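User: Good morning. I'm curious how S-adenosylmethionine would be positioned relative to this chain. Could you predict the structure with it bound?
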Amino acid sequence: MPRIIYEIQEKYISSFAENDDELILSIEEYAKQNSVPILDKNASQFLELIIKSYQPKRVLEIGTAIGYSSIKIARSLDKKGILHTIEISENNIQLANENILKSGLSKKIKIFKGEAKEIIPDLKKKYNLIFLDADKEDYLELLELSIPKLKNNGIIIVDNLLWHGWVAKTRVIKKYKRSTEFIREFNNIFMNHPKLFATILTIGDGIGIAVKKKND
Ligand SMILES: C[S@@+](CC[C@H](N)C(=O)[O-])C[C@H]1O[C@@H](n2cnc3c(N)ncnc32)[C@H](O)[C@@H]1O
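Assistant: Good morning! Here's the predicted structure, ligand included:
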């Protein structure tokens, strides 16, 4: 497996986040034991930093899984901030609900159940920040559906844009070929999108971050 940064530096940075609370540590452990893909620890630190500094009033997350990043986002919002999060898996929704209840953040988080491609067009009000973390083959469509739901100067954050390092490699193993192609195509559009000013950071599995240009 290629890497984005060396393991030793990654572990060094993560070591500063070891004082996370028991709930967060237990979700991380559950995800590890049950192969649930959740946001990398360093990437989640970055996401929290953006939320704490930008203080968005309305956040949309696409891909709740078991509520790990939802809890991290919601706990970083200010008093009036709210999170809407979309998830298709019934099993994940149940676990996310349990974790969110334990976090005491139920009032700030609303889970929308179902296919994000069907739910997003029906969302009424725009968002200050959108976090996209769903199936990679859906990324392009979800990006195009999300942009009209983002306020001018709003931020969009996308996970996995370096895809374990594969996107930058000339040779890709069979298992990752298809998904790597999806991410490469997505990155080309994301980085050159006329409505966005975007970059990709070497945090976690590669975090894309973009701001929506004014008057688009
Ligand atoms: C990578 S996980 C999300 C991890 C989560 N953001 C975290 O860091 O804790 C992706 C989740 O998105 C859900 N998902 C994928 N594609 C989706 C879609 N098109 N609509 C709704 N949910 C989707 C999957 O069921 C999965 O639980």
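The mean pLDDT is 95. The pocket of S-adenosylmethionine is lined by residues 37-39, 63, 65, 68-69, 86-89, 92, 115-117, 133-135, 138 (CB under 6 Å).
Let me know if you'd like a different ligand tried.
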